[in-house]
Design a protein that fits this description.
By secondary structure, this protein is an all-alpha fold. It is built from five helices and no strands.
Length: about 100
């Protein structure tokens, strides 16, 4: 991060490293959301926040992020992160 503070991948990896130490999903979500404010088009960060909300069982917020993720991936015809499909399906079944 000292080398390139604009590298958002490093920012969210750091958030996960900090999570490994404190096990605080709410703080992880906050740190990921802060990274997202720097570039709102980052589907990797949007997905990570959706997944974090899923693990918090906050399906309403998870739905918000996954919906945004799906809008972006569908509009560009992207088929990325297929491992997330099961989590997304659970969230959609509980909230949509």
């Amino acid at each position: 991060m000292d080398y390139n503070p604009n590298n958002l991948y490093s920012v969210y990896v750091k958030a996960y490293i900090q999570y490994a130490g404190n096990r605080n999903l709410q703080l992880l979500k906050k740190r990921l959301a802060e990274a997202l404010t720097k570039d709102t088009t980052r589907i990797d960060i949007i997905r990570e926040i959706g997944k974090t909300c899923y693990f918090m069982r906050d399906y309403q917020d998870s739905y918000k992020y996954y919906k945004h993720y799906l809008q972006i991936t569908d509009s560009y015809g992207l088929d990325v992160y297929p491992g997330e499909d099961a989590k997304i399906a659970i969230v959609l079944s509980k909230w949509a």
